[in-house]
Amino acid sequence: MPTFSAPDGTALAYHATGDGPPLVCLPGGPMQASAYLGDLGGLTAHRTLIRLDLRGTGDSATPTDPASYRCDRLVDDVEALRKERGLERVDLLAHSAGANLAALYTARHPDRVARLVLVTPSVYAVGIDITAEDRLRTARSRRDEEWFGPAYSALEAVTEGRATGDDWQAIAPFWFARWDAQARAVRAAEAEQRNDEAAGAYGSEGAFDPGATRAALARFAGAVLVLAGETDVAGPPRAMAEYARLFGEAELVVQAGAAHFPWLDDAGSFARTVEAFLHG
Q1: pLDDT for residue 72
Q2: Segment (H or E) for 152
Q3: Closest CA to 119 of 249, 243, 279
Q4: Half-sphere exposure of 219 (CA within 13 A, CB side)
């Protein structure tokens, strides 16, 4: 497992797996170890995945300054990884909350990003409004699932700001196309893989300046893929289409039947879409 030093001296780890050109991968969570990304639906057959464990997660060290977990400060860690790997420009993939970091990195270092893949991205860094009805409308497409009733009631509580811890647990089936043993295992692992202290600081005051980030992304000249899940309540397709329009030119793909983890929901479709984009 390779390690390198962040600018503040924190020892950071990354995992390189697969064959082919490198693809730097940023995990979500926020602040979850990169292990859950796995081989991203078989992308390792075409790409060397460089999965970064963000500071305080996975095999990376805990920093002395907890404020350094803030998303905008993590940009320097991604830049240090690029230098460590000797890459003049990177193909960059980010999932969920990791897309906030990818957006800030691209805004600050546009000349260092060749291709950008945003998978079911979080929108905090760019200030897109996702309404309660956006989420509920998307959720209702799954009304025939056996678990739908209690999960939908819990989602209503979440969108109305009255959720309990039990409600947050009850909506878990919405994150996956199939609420099966694999999905339950992924969900259960999150508690051990995520650094809750770091997650609390990730989006703290000062982390995001959506206006400035949107302006920078509009000027970005590299290729962009926004990959949404058709049934993803975290990033409904309407909001993902708005995200794609922030760029001068971006491709939007809505993966049929997929939720928040599209490489788990249909590995073949996911890998083909991403590899076709990267190869183009």
Answers
A1: 98
A2: helix 148-159
A3: 243
A4: 11
Range(s) of the domain holding residue 197:
3-127+179-279
**153 phi and psi angles, rounded to 5 deg:** -60, -40
Do 164 and 186 have their domain in common? no
Reading the block at residue 266, the tokens are 């249909």
User: CA 216, 236, 152, 183: dihedral to nearest 10 degrees?
Assistant: -90
* 8-34 tens-digit pLDDT: 999 999 999 999 999 999 999 999 999
32 DSSP assignment: B
Per the structure, the count of domains in the chain is 2
User: Six-digit token pair at 40?
Assistant: 């991203």
Instruction: With CA atoms as reference, report the closest residue to 32 among 55, 3, 62.
Output: 55
The reply to whether 66 and 198 lie within a common domain is: yes
Q: Residues 146, 17: one domain?
A: no
Q: What is the C-alpha to C-alpha distance for residues 194 and 176, in angstroms, rounded to an integer? A: 19
d(CA 178, CA 184): 10
